[in-house]
Structure formats: C-alpha cells, structure tokens
Specification:
The complex is a heterodimer.
Chain A: H1 8-16, E1 22-26, H2 32-41, E2 44-49, H3 52-60, E3 65-67, H4 70-75, E4 82-88, H5 97-107, E5 108-116, H6 121-128, H7 153-163, E6 165-173, H8 184-187, E7 190-197
Parallel strand pairs in A: 1-2, 1-4, 2-3, 4-5
Antiparallel strand pairs in A: 5-7, 6-7
Chain B: E1 9-12, E2 22-26, E3 53-54, E4 59-60, E5 65-69, H1 101-115, E6 122-126, H2 128-139, E7 146-150, H3 158-172, H4 190-204, H5 207-213, H6 234-247, H7 252-264, H8 275-279, E8 285-291, H9 299-311, E9 316-321, H10 335-346
Parallel strand pairs in B: 2-5, 2-6, 3-4, 6-7, 7-8, 8-9
Antiparallel strand pairs in B: 1-5
Helix pairs in contact in B: 1-2, 3-4, 3-7, 4-6
The chains are: A alpha/beta, B alpha/beta.
Chain lengths: 199, 350
C-alpha cells in the first residue's frame, strides 16, 4: 500500500518507538515512516513492500527494503527480531488477518497496527444512507478498493481478545488527523493500536 | 600453484583524489574485463555491460571509477590455461590449477592494491559475478562498502551442477580435447564447446521468451517439414549459431574452470551450511536483485542470501524484478532493474 500524504498516524507511531529500536515496516511504501524514525529516533529498520514503484522510492530514500508480499516477507525474519513491527493502513487489505497478526507478534515484541475505522460515524451514516462509505481514510469506491476486510475498532479489539493479544495503547484520529478523546469508535476515522502478546 | 600471473583490466571514469569512488565489476562465466565502450575501429567490440556503464548510466562514469577485470584462469588476456607454463614453456592446459571464487577475490584485491584502492565503493556482479561480490563482502569486509549481488545464488543446486557437468562432459569427451592439451595438437574441442554453450544458453533464457522469440517457426519459408536431421526449427538455428560463435573464441579449459568455480562456490560450507554465519563478518551494505523468470538462479535463491543478511541484522535491500528474459535479464536494459541500480548507486557516499 502506498502511504498517503501527511500521515497523522506517523506521529503516533513515532511516539511509541524508543531510540535505537529495531523496526519492521510492512507495506512501507516509499519508506517515509522508517526515514522519519531513523532521523528522529535513530532506529534500525527494514521495510517490506511488493510494489515496484514503492521499492524504487524506498531505495532512493536510503531505506533497507525487501520486495516481497507480506506473507513471504515475514517468513524471512527470525522470531523476536524486532522491537516494533508496523502495519500501517494495510490490515484491511490482507485476507489472512489472524495469520498476519500472529506473524507480526512472532517477529516483533510489539506490533503497531493502524486501520480505517469502519465504525466512524460518517461511515455509518453513509451505509445508513444506502451507500458504501468513501472518506479521507477510506478513499476508494467499492469496486476499486484494495480493502478486503471491513471492521470497526470494537471488532478489532474483540479479535485481539480472542487471539490472546493485549492492547497496550490506542490512539484514535479524526479525518483531520486530530486526536479523538471520547466515543472513539464513533468519532474516530483512523485507529492506531499498539499490541503485544499476553504475557 | 602459480608462480605468478597477469591480470588484464580496463577502467572507465576517473579515480577521485580520495580514491573513494571505485567500483569493481566482476564478470560471469563467459565475461571479461571489457565491460563498456568500443575499441577504436572495432564497431562490434561493445562491452558486455555497456548498457549499464557509462556517462549518465546507472554505473555512472562521471561519478564513479569503474574497473573491469578478466579473472584469473580466463581467456581474454589474464593468465589462464592457454598461457605458457613457465616450467615447461608449453601452455598450461589441463595442468592449470582449478581456481575458486575466493582466489579471484584475492587476485582482484591485489589489483586494487596496485590501483591504490583501499576500499571499493561497491563490488558489482551478476550471476557468477554476484557470487564474487558476496565473497568480497565475506573475505575482505574492510575493503568493500557496498555489494551488489545480482541474479546470483549462495551456492549451486544439484540441478545447476548437473547442467555444468553435462557441459564439461561435452568438452572433455570431444576427441579434440586431448586431455586438455589440445593446444599442442593445434586444434580446439570445438564440438564440445559448442554443445556446452548451446546447453548453457537454454538455461539462460526463459521458456516464455523462447516461445515468444522462436516458437515453432521453421527455418525454411515453405512451412513444410523436411523430416530430416538438419536445421528445421529457428531455435535450432539460433542455438547452433550461438554455439559456433562461442566455440570460435572461448577457451575450453577456461570454460571447465569457470563452471568448476561455480560448482565449488559455497561460502556457508565452512560454517556447516549456515549462510548467516558465513556472512557475519561482512560490513558492506547489500543490494540483492533477482529476476522473476530466472530459473537458473531463481528469486528464491536470492532470498536465501537476503534472509541470511536479515538474520544478522545487516543492511540489505532486495528487488525482485519482473522480467521475461530469464537469467540473461541481468545483462539487459530492463527499466525497473536499471532504475533500482541507479537509485541505489546514487545514494552511495563517496
């Protein structure tokens, strides 16, 4: 997935990453997040992306990038190799949801997952109005969307509980990228989760 | 043991004052030192990687000092089996020692010493050339800052070795081979070399590309089969021409030696097969490139290298380039491939 312009979730993610950590960014696009983390946190990292243009852009950005689909990309990494594994705005495009979450927590101590919240009030309103939602964080028409999984924050948290995944932190943003402080599943357009295995 | 040897090399661009902009280009099985450009009055002498090396090209001679070398045991001017054995005055022939990729790296390092290059900005190679880049990073970690390993593998599979051995058997069983001492008989094992090259050539191309380029097109215009053993299909004509051309200039003993160097290449061997352990000493940053239709050294073989580097937390980028031209893709001007090399090399600090 290509990263969008002006990624408000980057700041949230950067806030959870400690200096010198090892970070894996799945669907790294042009490597902008890793570049930010290298410059501001001094991390060591790799990106994984399947798209030719993204791989080229990441290399041009000086990022270590592995061209691969996400399943095969993770197979090459040993257990516990990373402090943080990031999956930014991509979970909804992956068919094997549970497998990817398990794999991320296999190679990483923690995972950071951001996704468009289908429960956002405008999305609900769109469906109530009879149409599939199109918004800042769900910018596609139903017929050309790369998204294959549609879920709300509550759905995601229920799955985490079922999989024995602990939610360590959560930041929710509105369409303008501002932090949402209440009624998250209703007012939040983009959710960013920090998850780990239950000890 | 060789008492002494010559290496023939070519350079392109200029070495900067800090001597920090040198790139070594390692050749594959049948390559040599003439990487780019044309010789005066020889319009057919274009270098084998000319599309990649030159002013404004990915290996930009306006920025880098590019060195091409003919490897030890080669047949393009460096000491090899056709060179005279000082002990006998006759060509070495089959008595020329088998050299390995490690030996080549050591010989190339002596060339670097001679040129005053303490460390290469990059060592670049495709196929067997990529293996040399890998070996450089392992054996002389202080002397290589970037390794560009293209269409290579960390070791040959049984199938790879099998192809090599059929090629060798074609040469060795040619009556004109004379146990490798054909020079003294004023002949060359032309038939063997030709077969070796024809076989090799099949493995360098993809099935799709062969189908597209030749299909079942007949050599004659009538469209009718001649039901004989002459050249019937275009592919036969093409392969035979390739074989004939190759047999006309390439040394049979060098061919044997190069294929053996390939067979023996296995840096993980000394580490109980653990490639990550073998790569541990490397300090270079890596770019690994493979091509989707390369079945001689398939992308999965490049991934073995990448995964070993990842295991060690070493710097690596990996591009899997969609190309329909099989193993030969590394020699061709595939836009994504060249763009990746350009982007990677463009970031190398001098």
């Amino acid at each position: 997935m290509t990263h969008m312009l002006g990624r408000p979730d980057f700041e949230v993610i950067a806030g959870w990453v400690q200096p010198g950590e090892r970070v894996l960014d799945l669907g790294c696009g042009d490597g902008a997040l890793l570049k930010l983390l290298i410059e501001t946190r001094g991390i060591r990292g790799y990106g994984v992306d399947i798209d030719d243009a993204n791989v080229l852009a990441a290399i041009a950005n000086g990022i270590n990038v592995i061209q691969s689909n996400l399943d095969a990309g993770l197979a090459g990494f040993v257990d516990g190799a990373f402090d943080h594994v990031v999956l930014s705005r991509t979970l909804q495009t992956i068919r094997h949801t549970q497998e990817i979450l398990a794999a991320m927590l296999r190679v990483g101590r923690e995972a950071v997952v951001s996704f468009p919240n289908f429960g956002y009030w405008k999305n609900r309103a769109a469906v109530l109005g009879g149409r599939m939602p199109v918004s800042e964080d769900l910018p596609y028409q139903w017929f050309d969307t790369p998204n294959v999984r549609f879920f709300t924050m509550l759905d995601f948290e229920a799955l985490c509980a079922e999989m024995g995944i602990l939610v360590r932190d959560r930041q929710v943003l509105d369409e303008q990228g501002k932090l949402v402080t209440e009624e998250h599943n209703f007012l939040g357009s983009l959710a960013v989760y920090r998850i780990t295995r239950t000890p | 043991m060789l008492p002494a040897y010559d290496l023939v090399y070519e350079t392109y661009g200029s070495l900067n004052a800090a001597k920090s902009n040198a790139i070594l280009v390692c050749h594959a099985l049948s390559g040599h030192h003439h990487v780019a450009g044309l010789y005066a009055d020889q319009p057919k002498s274009r270098g084998w990687w000319d599309n990649l090396v030159g002013p404004g090209r990915p290996l930009d001679t306006e920025r880098f000092y590019i060195v091409g070398v003919n490897n030890l045991g080669g047949c393009h001017g460096s000491t090899g089996p056709s060179s005279p054995n000082p002990a006998t005055g006759k060509p070495w022939g089959a008595d020329f020692p088998v050299v390995t990729v490690d030996d080549w790296v050591q010989a190339q390092a002596r060339l670097a010493d001679f040129l005053g290059i303490a460390s290469w900005a990059a060592v670049v190679g495709g196929s067997l050339g990529g293996m040399q880049a890998l070996q450089w990073a392992i054996d002389l970690p202080q002397r290589i800052r970037h390794a560009l390993v293209i269409a290579a593998a960390p070791k040959l599979t049984a199938q790879n070795i099998a192809f090599n051995d059929v090629a060798r058997q074609a040469i060795i069983t040619d009556p004109d081979f004379h146990g490798g001492h054909f020079y003294e008989h004023a002949t060359v094992p032309r038939r063997g070399l030709r077969l070796a090259r024809m076989l090799g050539h099949i493995t360098y191309l993809s099935d799709d590309q062969m189908g597209e380029k030749f299909g079942r097109v007949l050599r004659n215009d009538t469209g009718a089969f001649s039901f004989g053993y002459g050249v019937e299909f275009e592919i036969e004509s093409y392969l035979r021409a390739q074989g004939d051309k190759f047999a006309g200039f390439f040394d049979a003993n060098t061919y044997l030696l190069m294929t053996k160097a390939l067979d023996y290449f296995d840096p993980a061997h000394r580490h109980d097969g653990d490639l990550a352990a073998a790569l541990k000493p490397a300090l270079a940053k890596f770019l690994v490139v493979s091509f989707t239709t390369d079945w001689r050294f398939a992308p999965s073989r490049s991934r073995e290298i990448v995964n070993a580097l990842l295991k060690n937390d070493q710097d690596v980028s990996y591009a899997e380039v969609a190309s329909s031209f099989g193993h030969d893709s590394f020699l061709l001007e595939e836009p994504q491939y060249h763009a990746v090399l350009r982007a990677y090399l463009g970031r190398i600090a001098l």
